[in-house]
Amino acid sequence: MRDNIFIYISTSVKKIYFQPLLIYPQHKIKQGLFIMALATLCLPLIQQCLPFADEDGLFGYYNTAGNVSFSFATWFDGSYQQKKDAYLNDHMGFRPGMVRIKDQVSFSLFSKAKYGGAILGKHNYLYYENYILAYNGRDYTGEAYIRHKMLRLKALQDTFAHMGKSLILAFTPNKAFFYPQNIPDSMRTPPGPTNYKSYVRMSDSLSINFINFNEWLLAMKDTSSNVLYPIAGTHWSVYSSIIAGDSLVRYIERTRNIRMPHAVWTKVGHLYGARQTDDDIVKAMNLMWPVAKEQYTYPELMYPADTSAKKPRVILIGDSFVINLLNNRLPQNSFTDWQFWFYFKYLNNANTPIGCEDANPLIEQYDWKAELDKTDCVVLMYTSINLTAGRDNLGNGFIEQAYDHYFPAKSNMSIVKK
Hints:
With 418 residues, this protein is α/β, with parallel strands linked by helices.
């Protein structure tokens, strides 16, 4: 009986859907399929010339080729064709969607994180390679280099103290320290000395004013019910950056013996959709679907009016971890005349866009030495990947240049390297 029913259904479907095709002229079917295939191939060109569908752009660092003007010289030397081809390729219709499909296939089928330096760890935890190298001590610069730099920082701190100013060093977290168990086995190495641990030890021995947010988050890891470090992000979570910002304000209060404005949590939202930097690695990978399901915590902040609270002038010098504080509007509400010297290269303040390098003035074209005389507090905030030698180092040249400014007679002293 069951077989008869199945045969009846199959015969009915065939009559309804396929029989018309059998009696339709074969050449018409072929023409229709050809037209459909041709139209599909032409869709990217149509989208490029006459956009008819909204497209989300690609994230991460992409060098999109610009358009090129025609000239006989560039035509005959072949450069026009090369540049025009690159421009048309980068601006092809539906390119972002096709890139996402390609990257999703690479991730889902071959476990490849197709973005510079991205590493897929265990249980789909995402890292950047330089964070793991810093955790393993592969970028270790040596005790002599670190000691020389920290002695200069100590001299600056004492000089600032005589001028009625404060100098504070803050170590922001590293995801590899937070989730070492999910680092790929192929990248595990025997523990050795690291820049981070040496800097922390010397900060303590030299009585540097410092906050260790890396250890602070690790101490809360097993007791906090909120995401402190997201699976799909490289920075601390928005939630942990908010409570870290409040701790920074309290540290400045104690250092300067003042009372400053504090944020009040009016409401706390728990969402599965990530905001700001909570999924910045996976955004840069341009995948179609999230790699993990996490519930993020997003407090809504309010700064009550308090005329008795003091807002010191503060200069923040550091890496991208500081941008979370700006997005949370901590400097805008707790500091006055605040400035953020991004990698000691770009200037951010109340009159410039946040983290937009192309639109921010360069520090080298800015009288930053005069700004030091006006400020009350300088805060250096760096994660361990930026505690190396060369371009990515603590202060990005600020410590050395400020030392030369305040101690010109000793400016001929060179940094001792490993």
